[in-house]
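Recap quiz, item 2
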Amino acid sequence: MDAFSAFLLPIILMPMGAMVLHGAAPSRDRASKTRNLAQAKASLVFQWVYGAYLVWISIMAMSVPEGLFLRGRAVPLGVTSLLIEPTLYLDARNAPFLMLMGICLPLIFTWLRDKDGRYGPSYYVSANLLTLSLAGVFVSDSLLLFYLFWETALLGAYFWIGMHGRANIHSGSVYNALVRFFLFTLVGSLPMLVSIIALCAVAGKDPGVNGIAAIVSDMAPEQRWWVFAGFALAFAVKLPLLGFHGWLRDTYNVSAPACRAVLSALMSKMGAYGLILVLAPGFSGEITYLAPYLQTLCVMGAIYGALLCLAQDRLVDILIYSSLSHLSLVALGVFAASGDVTTTGLTAAIFQVFNHGLIMAALFAFDARISTSGESPLLSATGGLRTGQRRLAAVLLTAIFASASLPGFSNFAGEILVLFTAFRSSPWLTLLASVGALIGAAALVRAFHLIFLGVRKGPDAPGFSQAGDLSYGETGLALGLIGVWLVLGLYPMLFIRPVEKTILTIGAVRALAGLP
Amino acid sequence: MNPWLLLLIPLIPALSAALLALLGTRLPYNAIGGIASLAAAGSLAIVLCFCGAGVFGAGQPVDFDTGPWIATQAFQAGLHLHLDSLSLCMCLLVTFFGFLITVYSIGYMRHDSEQGRFFASLNLFVASMLTLVLADNLVLIFLGWEGVGLCSYLLIGHYWKQEDVPLAAFRAFFVNRIGDVLFILGVFTMFSLFGTVSLSELALHGPALASIHSGQAALAALFLLGGAFAKSAQAPLHVWLADAMAGPTPVSALIHAATMVTAGVYLLARLDWLYAVSPEARLIICLCALTTLVLGAVLALVQTDIKKILAYSTLSNLALMFLALAAGSTGAGLLHLFGHAFFKALLFLAAGSVIFAAHHEQDVRHLRGVLKKLPVTNIAFLVGCIGGACLVPYLAAGFFSKEAVLGALHDAEFEGFGFRLSGHIVHGIVIAVELLSVVYLFRLYGYLRSDSAGPVVPKPVKGGTAHASKSGHDSHGKDDHAHGDHGHGGHGGVIKETSPTILGVLGILILAAPIFGWLSASPSLHGNGLIWKIITGGGAEPEGEALGHLWIPLVINLILAAAVFAVFSNGKRRESVLGLLKGLRFGAFGPLTRKFYFDDVYAALITTPLKGAAYLSRLILENIFTGLPTVAGMLGRGLSLGLRRLQTGKAHQYAIGVLLAVFLLAFYLGGH
């Protein structure tokens, strides 16, 4: 597949170009509203083109077990003898992450497009910076490149939230949320830099994401623990796991609606990617040792997130905490993946990440479409909104059921495998995790009932005005997305087979699973 | 027969459901009902074709296997449909009633504002139920299982604008979800133990393995039992079924009486070998079913909502099926499943006709004498009541099935956990409950045939949110249209038989129920045992009582029915008896008015603690987690404030510091 490897570059270069163009495009129109609308349109076109490209290249990469690999020229880092080799890779393990981006970005930017010319160029520049960083994280093989993109993602999110976020009475100020987000993420990522440097120092070169396992096995145990801790902390904050989620609520709350959807659908997947493709293959011994504690933490996260869902009065807060709950389940699958269920657990986790991203993109987008301002409706103050928003209510309920893992939706196929993996290590933890999922699902359905069904109330409550229904085009997009869930739910082997095959061909996992 | 046709059985209604969901608002009403009925008829036709393919009895099953569905190295579930005698019977049941009730709904839902959604859900339900009964493995069964649950939820919530309806739908969703969690854990336990979830493989290799690992097998049996209990509304997971009557009446007939609620019975019948080796599970089934049996029958006695009376009777009858399974007689349980479907669907549809004619009034006290003006519905009701109360052998659909259940219980023994329950006791309780069922059915029939004399119960004010009658859930999506445009008589208007589709379906079932009753008779009772043979795949006949021994209970039943009818159909007699009961303060008896406290116990044990934990987490824990950086910031600030004092800006103090450091360093280095 060498001939195709060059196709990896546009994954990063395209949003980079878009970023530059958005920032530097000369504007004939001085009136900011007209300019903003033109930028919004241009951005929409770009997201569709870029999305299509990502989906295409992911399918290409998933169709061959060995995937694509692009190796740059090796250059020494500064005065050191450390060689940096900027390498990119794409195979069935990380292609789902790109495909997720390829599907989510156009949908989010269409459903939540800027109709009023509210956002200036900086909105699109920071969004594209985040996009390119995310893509970079998912396809980088060399660790230094991985880290670089990891930090620029923080930068992109920082500016997007900081410049276009809005505080509301339910959240703290944008400034507070931003500082908290920044601190949490940086505390997570700086130790990772130390770990990466340590790995490079031991290897004498950049070992790459796929080479960690080989280097780690040469390290002394106490060294290994420190390196492990550095990585684990970064991923735990980004995902987030229970205890590392302090930044979550306020950051999402103050973000612009599209930003919120991207954060939940895509940025949280950085943490998931790290857990599944960096930590699990690289530090299998450490994870196996800590498995009971990590699994307990995940189950506690699943239940805690679900419980918090019950105590919220806004749909968006419920979504935020149900996301925490669901991602804890994904992590549970990763931490339970050992022995003969290794590949099953990892495959299921990748599948689940994909499903979760698609569902969260839809849920956050639809939530923001309920009111004209993008503010989430209050459960206690609204009711019977379905009268004016039949199509929106229908697709939102479908998405809620998809997130509740109804069989037939792809989320079910992923969740049953995750839970099965967990069941093999601990049936009782699995029971608790399922109870968590049950409570979370119930909270979402209850929220839907309170907002959309029953006696109509509060469509014109102070601070809330009900928006119009989805247009036919937008509903069509939603139906397309539902179609993806159904196809992958009724025939998940389309997804599972290539991913599992690729995971099996990677030596580290084979060794971990006790295979020759 | 081509196995691909098997796939078409659930696929046709599924496609129709998708079509109606997407285009339902644009199609004319008759087209919507027509498409939905045609889809159900298509499935019925294919199922009928398979009836001639030699699957019945001990015939050759038909398989349709498309390979793996959800499969990795460690877990496999196939996309495998399997049609054997039992599946075919269930398919017949589902498509027959599915078709009839879809046609019935064309009349019943004529004035509804959301017909597309209604018929789409109805078709999706038929598709899911067919998937459930055709699936060869537990995961695929779960697909159908959740599908029917979803449709049940959607249809219960059909009148979503009313205040109580969303809550009823949510309840059904939540209780079923609890069952689903247990079901999935049961699937995992089964796979871990047997290495497969395929029913046909399990039936081959399961029994031997299960007897070796009996502890694990019992665990799997209990988990799956939880799923079955939630779906089939057995205590303690029965609380959703009575509320589910908030849905339109055809839905109650199809989903909450004839088909979906029997899914749990079907599941246990499929896994009867598993329950055969775990007596503890059988004891639990027996105890829970006995509770439900008594509870359902007693609560049916005191309800005044016509649909709730029938719903509680359904609970009681489902419990009877579970008792048969617990006693080890799968055949008797399944026979009653079918018999119950016939008479209960008939009763519900007749009730629907009454409700429709009486402008969506459901309180029996306001429906006095309605049946006098509805001749066909009257016959349907009577046939249904006779079927449910087992008054006439051969003509009562439930007669021989109940006999089979009683026969199975008579010789059974239940033991486990060091506890022993004789089948004779259970047998006695069931007979007592049977008498109650005669009473509640003929109390209902008496009300509906009553003269209109007697004090008038003040009619609750309807309209707007002032929905004073808690029982009268069922009504149109009222806000959408005014009272007058219904086209059929309301209160004060003329009450008469209304829609031809309703009458046609009632007519078919009036004939079908006694025919089933006749065919279900076993040879020992001068029948040919056709149904029994088909259901059990040619299994051995149970030794029933000879018909000659049954005349005493029959006469008692008849006398009781006549007495109850005589009391309740006459205003004066009814008032005096009710007055007598009121004097005994029977109506204010706590357990009856509070539905045996199940709701209160759940509120105290589950809802309140959950909410408490949720708010506690939000107010305390969440603030700790989000406050971490604040605390870190405060610490840093404090540290900085302390350190700042060292920066005095005075040179001599710095010089002393440097000197001290040099000395310390010198000592340290000198020491080494």
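The beta strands of chain B are 62-71, 76-83, 413-416, 419-422.
Residues 193 and 216 of chain B are 7 Å apart (CA to CA).
End of item.
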